[in-house]
Amino acid sequence: MMVPFRKMHGLGNDFVVLDSRAEDLPITPARAAAIADRHFGIGCDQFIVMERPADGADVFMRIRNPDGTEAQACGNATRCIATLLMEERGADRVTVQTVAGHLPVERLPDGTVRADMGPALLGWRDVPLAREADTLHVPVSTAPFRDAACCSMGNPHATVFVDDLASLDVARLGPALEHDAWFPERANIGFAQVLAPDHIRLVMWERSAGMTLACGSGACATIVNAARRGLTEREAMVSLPGGDLRLTWRQDGHVLMAGPTALAYTGMLDLDAYPA
To answer: Residue 31 contacts by C-beta under 8 Å, 6 or more apart in sequence?
Structure first.
């Protein structure tokens, strides 16, 4: 079964995108994981399927991690899918529906794409944590960190603030924090260094995906957690290995994220070549 696909990315955070709006595609968790494999498949940080929307949205975006499990949110993928729709419709605004809710997206005059990622959820059950705790200071057990600031952007995030990001062994520390006992659904881990009240450097360890060049929802969680701790203003540039995102945490709790998107290439995919 040959189907077209797109390979897209936001700051190197890359996605395989299939379109099942006109015809349902037989995508199982195992098949998605096989296609996402960087050695035996196409390779991606997240596997995206565009589906028919409901409730007034322009598209439903289904997100799968590289292991085939379903994810609730992905900021850079939201901006990429919105870019496709805006080009398809000749529009500057669309609404992307995800498991986490409806996300309005717009193209800005400078050509970047800005998504309203919805409100950051700050309760311990929202993250979720294993038990009640102050989400601004969660006493994680992974040395050398004493605590993490946590919130949900539709998926669980924990941010640890450090003085020298370059000295950290993220590949070692990321998995330990992801699986910390505080996080029953595991967590996306942000390692953040505040450079100025309006500038943060960030490296993300994504749940199931590992270290990525960028993570939109992680950047959203980072500005929220930094502002809550009084380390930054509510608007800042977040610099990731793949590039910069502009983040704003509005007074109503919504987080806006702006940055570039790119189409890397297109092709045809034989679904029957991957296990169902």
So the answer is: 68, 271, 274, 275, 276
